[in-house]
Amino acid sequence: MLENMQSICAKSPLEKTFAYSPRFYDYESYVVFAKEANLNVILALVAVLVVLLIFTGNLTVSLFVLLCVGLVDLFLFGLLTFWKVTLNSVTIINVVIALGLAVDYSAHIGHAYLTVDPPNTDENGNPLSNHEKRVLKARGALGQMGPSVFHGAFSTFLAIIVLSGSKSYIFSVFFKMWF
């Protein structure tokens, strides 16, 4: 309807003709919604990659963290379908916020992986393979940062659990998406 009204006004012989309704603000958001949603998610992911590259200085770890962040958002979109929640401005805001939360958790583990210094030999003095060193680094990173990440995620869960019984659309969507 909005696009039809704009077309009619554009074809009008009267100059500077326009149609107005307070509902047009809502309609306008639907006209640009898909483009803006994609742009926001893509720009957020690009910003995440740039910041990760600056702070980790390691392309491989940065790409793995970015993959984890992307998978969190992919899971979130799947969860929206499961909960029968439609895409709108409220859900897209939560998707972009989820990027930030996923970066926080994933980046801490990735950074800890980079800081763990594995031994060169096992307890018998045999040299460790690269695979064994990577396994030790991953175990060390999870042992070092895993509890902190778990506590952060659990405290976030406790904070949003109070929204579970809400009748408000915005609060129920926040609960469903953060759950």
Describe this structure in words.
By secondary structure, the chain is mainly α. Helix content is 77%, strand content 0%. Helix 2 runs parallel beside helix 4. The model has no long low-confidence stretch (mean pLDDT 88).
Unreliable residue runs: none
Approximately how much beta-strand content do the residues carry? Answer: under 5%
Number of helices: 6
Query: What does the oligomeric state look like here?
Result: single chain
Cα-based radius of gyration, to the nearest Å: 24 Å
Sheet/helix structural class: mainly alpha
Shape: elongated
Biggest pleated sheet = none
Number of strands: 0
Mean of all residue-level pLDDT scores: 88
Order of helices and strands: HHHHHH
N-to-C span? 37 Å
List keywords for this structure.
single chain, 179 residues, mainly alpha, 0% strand, elongated
Secondary structure blueprint with pairings:
Elements: H1 2-11, H2 23-56, H3 59-83, H4 89-115, H5 130-161, H6 169-178
Summarize the structure.
By secondary structure, this protein is mostly helical. The chain has helices spanning 2-11, 23-56, 59-83, 89-115, 130-161, 169-178.
